[in-house]
Automatic annotation (TrEMBL):
The keyword Transmembrane helix does not apply. Pfam families: Glyco_hydro_2, Glyco_hydro_2_N2, Mannosidase_ig. Its EC number is 3.2.1.25. It comes from the Eukaryota. This is Beta-mannosidase B. SUPFAM superfamilies: (Trans)glycosidases, beta-Galactosidase/glucuronidase domain, Galactose-binding domain-like. Pathway: Glycan metabolism; N-glycan degradation.
């Protein structure tokens, strides 16, 4: 009788006994091989003393040091500078785990899903692995058949991880290969390009320099005779001309181990629906003479079995299915299982010649089609949500991505200076209908291309493409972030050695390993015209000519677009509560915008001058810190929402997709900081989060106010002028965006309110039909204003310079408001809004933990922003969730929103022009 295959056992080492310590310095040159060999002296008393218990695995050394109060919290005060030594020294992790050496399994495999980053691995005093790539999955075979030197397992085993300084390796590689350009000094030491470690660890213009290390992802030991090595699913969809579809699934099962032991065994494959019902089932015997290590099963006509398409949020359901494969031995006993959750959809990146010219010329499109439907992408760029990756819980990932979804965003771009996120991130995107733009991890640098570097990066790319390819949310792989842009931006660069990765290796890997194919884009930004990455007529662009670059007024965003804007933004200060978190223990004298502690938590280059320009242009100067903080948030909200509104307007229908998507920089923060984030580190949304949400509603309305002036000038077109240039009047352009796939009839109501009198007026356009999946231009009109004689204390040509315009789209049948937008006269520094007589009423909604809040005014109010003190939950993050906020209000149009988590907390409010907030 043939020997039976035993069950495959996977043992996660996180439940074993772990300890850590700093390695005692053994000399100045810790790259010397003799010094490295000292690591094997496990029985030396001096070597093993001083170990501390690891609090949780996965682990990072900064976290362990904080938990024993060996270092201060680097997110507070100036503490970042007190912990820099950690990245200069070596660290040890030790794990003691059992192993049944009497077991009959033929194979053993150690798998390291993430070691950060430069690490020698020892098992029972024998080196079994050296790693230098944080993004790779490493496996070590400990097969019995390979002899005792290869399989040093015993009843009790010691796994030792020796982490060396990534900074030290980077500098050693730089000395060997030469110093290169890698962005500005705010983007970390240029030597970072030589090490495959999260680039933001070296610091970025929104993040601290915290060079941590450790086993930041799982480590497991697998024992087996035979196992399922991989399950590769190919969910194929054909969209027919009548909008029906055909669905096919191919499942490739790769086996590992002793196949002769599997004779007369079987593979059992099942496809389950979300509710657990079986859609398809195939059981395949393993033939006696089989030598094939990959077995394929094809299920056709799945649409006839009730399979549905997976859709992005707001376009349909996120139908998900589970493919499960079981491997059984000849007695029918299951020895291994593997599953993947999949969805059926098509994804296309459309780059085709446009029918007509726009303001930039003709060029080509850049937009996405999902299941044959052209979809405008509105979303955010994502950076790692913490400088210490092990501190990001699954619940925190879900909270972040749910905020993105609830903010009417349908795409997230994973930026190339962070990490390939863990599986849970992409699982949540699948569930929420969020499309993923995935950068390969290269950012703002001239990366090397020597053989060893290319080889490790190819392994990195293959590991992550294989891991992610089955997710229906995955829409694009992109070669790098801003590496092509480096050439013209910084000068003195005439070549990118790593082009071989972006233009050959990555597209080859994506093409070879994904079927159906995932679109690939060689860089962001990139347009295909040499080094010019700023051409608005082709590819994607990063628009940094407002904050940075030419430092243009944000009122110019409508002239600064492109076919797809994958980065743009403007920073603001976070809430006062967040600022207080890093001011802990600081003297009150530090609570002003130019203080040392504010500078410590503002990493952006030239931020003092840039903030001064944009704030001085648009708002009155104030010495009240809380008012200044709120005004920066209002500035960010106005700037970014104007960009979204203007660029979405250019989604004009088939053949006229002049802008196919907008991704703001950035959704989140990795620590408490002044940054571009629209939601701060503690999950506190800034006003801009809500204004973006309204701009990305399925139906939205826009207004552009063009101020007429008495002579040509270079001032913002929206500004009323009272100096050498005089405003003589203003006209309005009104349009609506409809991202649904059907026509929507509306009546358009335009109301006018004077800030300084009781005057108001109204104009209505009835019977307007919003065309599906595009912008509809509605009307142009003069901006009305009260015909009263100007007071002697006012400027001579005020006219509409004190008039607020509110446009609403109203359903003609139900008379419900589908969309609204208020346009205020600019610049805001000229305005002195009177008390709006704001009323806030709060009642229980009838749903647990939810309250309904109604806001009403007697005078127009801009950016009424609600918050609550003591809003953090036990995990340390905000528990308050508003369905809307930062709203503009006008008389006769009360707005209602709901809030969760308020409990008995008192509501606070801010609005533009409110007396000092301190």
């Amino acid at each position: 009788m043939a020997a039976q295959v035993k069950h495959c056992h996977v043992f996660g080492l996180e439940n074993s006994v772990w300890s850590w310590k700093q390695r005692a310095p053994a000399g100045s040159d810790y790259w010397n091989e003799e010094v490295i060999n000292e690591i094997t002296l496990l029985e030396d008393d001096d070597f093993v003393k001083g170990w501390k218990k690891v609090t949780s695995v996965p682990s990072e050394v900064h976290v362990e040091l904080m938990k024993i109060n060996a270092i201060p919290n680097p997110y507070v005060g100036f503490n970042e500078h007190k912990v820099q030594w950690i990245g200069d020294v070596e660290w040890l992790y030790r794990c003691v785990f059992p192993f049944d050496v009497s077991g009959s399994h033929q194979h053993a495999l150690l798998t390291f899903e993430g070691l950060d980053a430069i690490c020698d691995v020892y098992l029972n005093a024998k080196k079994i692995l050296s790693t230098d790539n944080q993004f790779r999955t490493y496996t070590v075979s400990l097969d019995r058949s390979q002899g005792e030197t290869k399989a040093p397992l015993s009843d009790e085993n010691t796994l030792l991880l020796h982490f060396k300084s990534a900074k030290g390796l980077a500098k050693a590689e730089e000395a060997k290969y030469g110093k290169v350009r890698a962005g500005s000094t705010n983007l970390g030491d240029p030597s970072r390009v030589y090490v495959r470690k999260a680039q933001y660890d070296w610091r970025w213009d929104w993040g601290p320099e915290l060079m941590t290390c450790g086993p930041y992802r799982s480590i497991s030991l697998t024992r087996y005779d035979a196992r399922i090595e991989d399950l590769n699913t190919h969910a194929k969809v054909i969209i027919d001309q009548d909008d029906t579809f055909q669905a096919t699934l191919v499942a490739d099962v790769t086996l590992d181990g002793d196949l002769e032991l599997l004779r007369h065994g079987s593979l059992d494959l099942k496809l389950f629906g979300a509710d657990g019902h079986t859609v398809q089932h195939t059981k395949m015997p393993i033939e006696e003479d089989t030598t094939a290590r990959t077995v394929s099963v094809t299920w056709t006509k799945l649409h006839e079995h009730g399979v549905e398409l997976w859709w992005p949020v707001k376009y349909g359901n996120q139908a998900l299915y589970t493919v499960e494969v079981s491997l059984a031995n000849s007695t029918g006993e299951t020895v291994d299982t593997m599953s993947k959750r999949i969805g059926f959809r098509t994804v296309e990146l459309v780059q085709e010649e446009l029918q007509e010219e726009d303001q930039y010329g003709k060029g080509t499109s850049f937009f996405f089609k999902i299941n044959g439907i052209s979809i405008f992408m509105g979303g955010s760029n994502w950076i790692p949500a913490d400088s210490f990756l092990t501190q990001i819980s699954d619940e925190r990932y879900r909270a972040w991505l749910t905020m993105l979804r609830d903010g009417n965003q349908n795409m997230v771009r994973l930026w190339g200076g962070g990490i390939y996120e863990p599986d849970i991130f992409y699982d949540i995107c699948d569930e929420l209908g969020i499309l993923v733009w995935q950068d390969f991890q290269f950012a703002c640098g001239v990366y090397p291309a020597h053989d060893y570097f290319i080889n490790t990066v190819k392994h990195e790319a293959e590991d992550n493409v294989r891991r992610l390819r089955h997710h229906p949310s995955l829409a694009l792989f992109c070669g790098n972030n801003e590496d092509y842009q480096m050439v013209l931006q910084w000068g003195g660069i005439d070549q990118l050695p790593a082009r071989i990765l972006y233009e050959k290796e990555f597209p080859d890997i994506v093409s070879r390993l994904t079927d159906p194919p995932i679109p690939y884009h060689r860089g962001s930004p990139y347009g295909g015209k040499g080094w010019d990455t700023s051409d608005p007529t082709i590819g994607d662009v990063h628009q940094w000519n407002v904050w940075g670059g030419k430092e243009l007024p944000y009122q110019e965003y409508d002239r600064l677009g492109g076919r797809f804007v994958s980065e743009f933004g403007i920073p603001s200060m976070p809430s006062m509560s967040t600022i207080k978190s890093w001011m802990a223990g600081a003297d009150e004298s530090q609570f002003y915008s130019q203080s040392q502690l504010m500078a410590q938590h503002t990493k952006a280059g030239s931020f003092e001058r840039r903030f001064a320009i944009v704030m001085n242009e648009n708002f009155r100067l104030t010495s009240d810190f809380a008012t200044h903080v709120f005004n920066t948030q209002l500035m960010q909200s106005e700037a970014v929402s104007f960009a979204y509104r203007s660029w979405r307007r250019e989604w004009r229908g088939s053949g006229k997709e002049y802008n196919g998507g907008v991704l703001v920089w950035q959704l989140n923060d990795c620590w408490p900081v002044v940054s571009w984030a629209i939601v701060d580190y503690f999950l506190r949304a800034k006003p801009v989060y809500y204004t973006i949400m309204r701009q990305l509603s399925s139906v939205s309305v826009g207004v552009f106010r063009l101020v007429h002036k008495n002579r040509d000038n270079d001032r913002p077109r929206q500004f009323y002028e009272y100096g050498a240039i005089q405003a003589t009047g203003a006209s309005l352009q009104i349009w609506a965006s409809n991202n649904t796939v059907h026509e929507i009839p509306v009546n358009v109501e335009t109301r006018f309110f004077d800030l300084y009198s009781d005057w108001s007026d109204i104009r209505t356009v009835e019977g307007v039909v919003l065309l599906p999946n595009q912008t509809t231009e509605i009307t142009e009109m003069d901006c009305l204003y009260p015909q009263h004689e100007a007071k002697s204390t006012t400027a001579p040509f005020t006219g509409s310079g004190s008039v607020v315009v509110c446009v609403r789209l109203i359903d003609p049948t139900s008379e419900t408001v589908l969309a609204r937008f208020s346009d205020w006269p600019e610049p805001y520094r000229f305005l002195s809004p009177p008390d709006p007589k704001l009323t806030i009423s709060v009642v229980d909604s009838g749903t647990a933990d939810e309250k309904m809040v109604t806001l009403d005014v007697q005078r127009p109010a801009k950016c009424v922003f609600l918050s609550a003190e003591e809003d953090l939950d036990q995990s340390g993050f905000s528990c308050i969730k508003w369905t809307d906020n930062a709203v503009d209000l006008v008389p006769g149009d009360p707005q209602q929103l709901s809030v969760e988590g308020l409990n008995n907390r008192k509501i606070k409010y801010n609005y533009f022009g409110q007396p000092d907030l301190a």
